[in-house]
Design goal:
about 1000 residues; alpha+beta; Calcium-transporting ATPase, cytoplasmic transduction domain A; Calcium-transporting ATPase, transmembrane domain; 5 domains; 11-stranded mixed beta sheet; 8-stranded mixed beta sheet; 40 helices; about 15% strand; nucleotide-binding; P-type calcium transporter activity; magnesium; metal-binding; translocase
């Protein structure tokens, strides 16, 4: 009974908010019923049965048939399928085959994209450690990590992945790399002490190691308190599975457009069908006997049906889905040049709609390379230029370069940073004739090596001149590290502050650590002219004031001290801290920070001009986040910095209000990031969310567009994201936004181009039917127009480079339809112009033809309206209508390359792809009209000179009207300005 109660308690605590960190180690072991010998086999078996394997559970993926249904469950697609079936039943096999080919192609493309999209959890599972060292039945053994259960005692060593959520019982210099989970940029120092605050954020749970994180230094021992889906990693997996992917703005707009077109086309099809029946028959017969009517007038019904189907084909732009897909694919290629890899086609356009970029700090806004930027020695500040791990830069005083070798105390500070150091600076290769470097070890210690190298002290030379003899490693309680070095003879070119020929073979004791802790051990300080003077209260206060000033600028500050001893301390090789932590000489301070990327500031300005707000979301501390945000201009005057704890105190409405004036969120958890994204979206923002860690994945998936880091990002973040930055740079996001806007602008151009053509086709057939005229265009001609004459130039429009000043415009509204007021007016104007031109060409063709066929004395105009068209050859008129409309589209494809700019200002021939598209389309059009075996299929024949002149003259009218329309649009904008 007691055992069951205990198990229920464990299960409850694992499923709810875990508070193991708030218990003492003894209480944790007691609650989990763990003995000194660890768990026994029977206990392990019972707990595996209760909690399951220590692995992440993957939700079922959609089946192939489910994905196939999603592709066909679309109103426009259903309409096309119906049109194809009806065409086949009427014997129009070419039209039916062409329509079905389009439907199948789009379905295949959609399924391929969807199959690539859901790999996030598979990547998440890779983070789980394969094996674990565990204490069971009194012996230390290695078991598969999936077999761990709550209560197992595990051992952690440098280089190990943590196999489960572990409450530490012992931590010896233990540091864990938690950036992928918490966003903390530096390894976290762990301890076994309990934490009294039950609600402390994950990043501050120093006594807990989390599944999937990496032990970077030291060793430890702990008890498993969470396995599988009950770990923090499992919590993220659960969120990934429950977060629903949002439709992109483009998908919503195209769906709305498709529904509108479909409903309108069905209404028009019904009207035209009825009108055609009335035109071809006696209306009294239609309603007197339906059965007899349909028997007697099967040919009439078929003819009316063909006209209706032709209208349906004209109403739905068959080429639009394919052109949109190909346009987005071309945009993906351009994105790669801008260091952005797009994983989901529809996300390309979403970037252009973005109104907010939620950016991680480390590695995105900053360089993710700790850099010493300031020294303080005996009251003097030195600036350090250069950034990252390349050992190139200057030392400055009052922003003027100085030779730091002339300041012995400054040199001593730098040398101590090299001696008291476990990191390594390595050359990794060359790019553009420059050497590239990396740090192996702690980034903070790496920054000290690089700073010294800028002063000429290469770490390898310094360590050879002063080989290490002994050490006391850093620990979180003492907050300092001690090393002992032998004074050997350095090479002549070295500048060695500790070398004295009289003190050869003496030892240097080097100490670095928290400035206040180091300062308390010092009885002397080193002056700028290299003298050692007794420490005074006044001097001590000046050091602390310098430390406070540097800390307020968000610098991580380390104090340096030393002592020279004749005899190396440490009996029998064992060094005790108290032996050396006395009579030390304080030298100076080194302040470092992960600096902002130099290009970020200008990118933020460009994004601001484009109406895009940037919000920093980081796991780092508020002061550090504020300093970076202020330095790059991200934190606006009067705006706030908030923490995850602040978010916990807000309800949904409060957060929605506060987020409008909060530019920086620090010390946040995955749940906080989700809340931030939700609040922004509730305020009608289109959100781009960046991240690199496992902790970022749920928010990346929830955002309108998720952006992962390609260099530092985990596989989980990359597989969840819509876009991956290949250079981890915020500036690349802004550049990608610009390309996204260009792509959306191009989509608008060919939507306008295709729809204005389709509406004109509808009106041409509709008005001709109402007037009792034969259909000016056949179904196969309409398909040719939609797929070839319109399709090729539409693809060329996708290659436009974008209008000037596109990044000075505000993002288009989230609920703005693709067809806004301006485009609607353009469609109306083009419909009128094209319909007039084509019906004029058709009418002239009929006029010339019927003038020869009518009896003498009958007015041709009356004959056009009253003539019985059955059995009459109208091929010339249909050919003139078909060629006129085709050339209308080809001529005006040049004018729609910009929504406002004149054709002559952007250059008639500036888009070479348009020349190819129009040239190919004209060539194919001539073949259709001239080649004998193609003429019967397309119902065409070759025109005479007069007919060609009429066709070409009328075909120029839409292009001219488009340029006039754009002129008045520009004029209206000038008046507003």
């Amino acid at each position: 009974m007691q055992n069951n109660k205990l198990n229920d308690t464990v299960k409850t605590e694992q499923n709810e908010e875990q508070a193991w960190h708030a218990l003492t180690a003894e209480d944790v072991l007691r609650h989990l019923e763990v003995q000194d010998a660890g768990l026994g086999d029977e206990q392990v078996a019972r707990r595996i049965a209760q909690y399951g394997q220590n692995e992440l559970q993957e939700a079922p993926r959609p089946t192939f048939w489910h994905m196939l249904w999603d592709q066909f469950n679309n109103f426009v697609v259903i309409l096309l399928i119906v049109a194809s079936i009806v065409s086949a039943l009427l014997g129009e096999y070419i039209e039916a085959g062409a329509i079905m080919a389009i439907v199948v192609l789009n379905a295949v493309l959609g399924i391929v994209q969807e199959q690539r999209a859901e790999e996030a959890l598979a990547a998440l599972k890779k983070l789980a450690a394969p094996d674990a060292q565990v204490l069971r039945n009194g012996s230390r053994q290695v078991v598969p990590a999936r077999e761990l259960v709550p209560g197992d005692i595990v051992f952690l060593e440098a280089g190990n992945y943590v196999p489960a959520d572990v409450r530490l019982l012992e931590a010896i210099n233990l540091r864990v790399e938690e950036a992928s989970l918490t966003g903390e940029s530096l390894p976290v120092q762990k301890s076994a002490a309990s934490i009294m605050d039950k609600d402390v954020p994950i990043g501050d749970r120093k006594n807990t190691a989390f599944m999937g994180t990496l032990v970077s230094y030291g060793r430890g021992r702990g008890v498993v308190v969470g396995t599988g889906m009950r770990t923090q990693l499992g919590l993220i997996a659960t969120m990934l599975q429950t977060v629903e992917s949002e439709e992109t703005p483009l998908q919503r707009r195209l769906d709305e457009l498709g529904k509108t077109l479909s409903i309108a086309s069905l209404i028009l099809v019904a009207i035209v069908f009825i009108v055609a029946l009335i035109n071809y028959t006696n209306i009294n017969e239609l309603f007197s006997g339906p059965v007899q009517y349909f028997t007697d007038y099967a040919e009439v019904i078929t003819e009316a049906f063909i006209i209706a189907i032709s209208l349906a084909i004209a109403a739905v732009p068959e080429g639009l889905p394919a052109v949109v897909t190909i346009s987005l694919a071309l945009g993906m290629r351009e994105m790669i040049r801008r260091h952005a890899l797009i994983r989901k086609l529809s996300s390309v356009e979403t970037l252009g709609s973005a109104t907010v970029i939620c950016s991680d700090k480390t590695g995105t806004l900053t360089q993710n390379e700790m850099t010493v930027t300031r020294l303080w020695v005996d009251g003097q500040y030195f600036g350090v230029t250069g950034s990252g791990y390349v050992p190139e830069g200057d030392f400055t005083v009052d922003d003027k370069p100085v030779d730091v070798t002339k300041y012995p105390a400054a040199l001593t500070t730098l040398w101590l940073g090299v001696l008291n150091n476990d990191a390594e600076l390595e050359i990794t290769g060359e790019t553009d004739s420059e050497e590239t470097y990396r740090i192996v070890g702690d980034p903070t210690e790496g920054a000290l090596l690089v700073a010294a190298a800028k002063a000429g002290a290469l770490p390898i030379d310094v360590k050879q001149a002063y080989p290490r003899e002994n050490e006391v490693p850093f620990d979180s309680e003492r907050k300092r590290m001690i090393t002992v070095h032998e004074v050997s003879e350095p090479s002549p070119e070295d500048i060695s502050p500790f070398y004295d020929d009289k003190k050869r073979d003496w030892s240097v004791i080097a100490i670095k650590g928290a400035p206040d802790m180091v300062l308390d051990l010092c009885t002397h300080y080193q002056t700028m002219d290299d003298q050692s003077k007794p420490m005074t209260d006044e001097k001590r206060q000046r050091v602390l004031e310098a430390n406070d000033l540097m800390t307020k600028d968000a610098l991580r500050v380390l104090g340096m001290a030393y002592r020279i001893e004749k005899e190396a301390p440490g009996e029998n090789g064992k060094l005790k801290a108290e032996e050396v932590e006395q009579d030390l000489v304080f030298v100076g301070l080194q302040g470092m920070i992960d600096p902002a990327r130099p290009e970020v500031k200008s990118a933020l300005v460009e994004g601001g001009n484009a109406g895009i707000r940037t919000v920093m979301i980081t796991g780092d501390y508020p002061n550090t986040a504020r300093a970076i945000a202020e330095a790059i201009g991200l934190l606006k005057p009067g705006h706030k910095v908030a923490t995850g704890a602040d978010i916990d105190k807000m309800d949904v409405d409060t957060l929605r209000a506060e987020i409008k004036e909060t530019d920086v969120f620090a010390r946040v958890s995955p749940e906080h990031k989700m809340k931030i994204v939700d609040a922004l979206q509730a305020n009608d923002e289109v959100v781009a969310m960046t991240g690199d860690g496992v902790n970022d994945a749920p928010a990346i998936k929830r955002a309108d567009i998720g952006v992962a880091m390609g260099i530092t990002g985990t596989d989980v973040a990359k597989e969840t994201a819509d876009m991956v930055l290949t250079d981890d740079n915020y500036a690349s996001i802004v550049s990608a936004v610009e390309q996204g806007r260009i792509i959306y602008s191009n989509i608008r151009k060919f939507v306008f181009f295709l729809l204005s053509s389709n509406v004109a086709e509808i009106m041409i057939i509709f008005l001709a039917t109402l007037a009792g005229l034969p259909a000016p265009l056949t179904a196969i001609q309409l398909l040719w127009l939609n797929l070839v004459t319109d399709g090729a130039p539409a693809l060329a429009l996708a290659m436009e480079k974008g209008d000037p000043g596109i990044m000075m415009e505000k993002p288009h509204a989230k609920n703005e339809p693709i067809i806004n007021r301006t485009m609607g007016m353009g469609i109306i104007i083009q419909t009128i112009t094209q319909t007039t031109a084509v019906l004029t060409a058709f009418g002239l063709g009929l006029y010339w033809h019927i003038d020869q066929a009518l009896p003498v004395g009958v007015n041709p105009i009356v004959g056009l309206i009253q003539h019985d068209w059955f059995g009459v050859d109208v091929q010339t008129a249909e050919t003139m209508a078909f060629l006129t409309l085709s050339l209308c589209e080809l001529f005006r494809s040049y004018t729609v390359r910009s929504e406002r700019a004149s054709l002559f200002s952007i250059g008639v021939f500036s888009n070479k792809y348009m020349q190819y598209a129009v040239g190919l389309s004209v060539f194919l059009l001539i073949l259709v009209a001239a080649v004998p075996f193609l003429q019967p299929i397309f119902n065409t024949h070759w025109l005479n000179l007069n007919e060609w002149l009429v066709v070409i003259g009328l075909a120029l009218l839409p292009a001219i009207s488009e340029e006039i329309t754009k002129f008045f649009l520009r004029r209206k904008e000038w008046q507003v300005k």
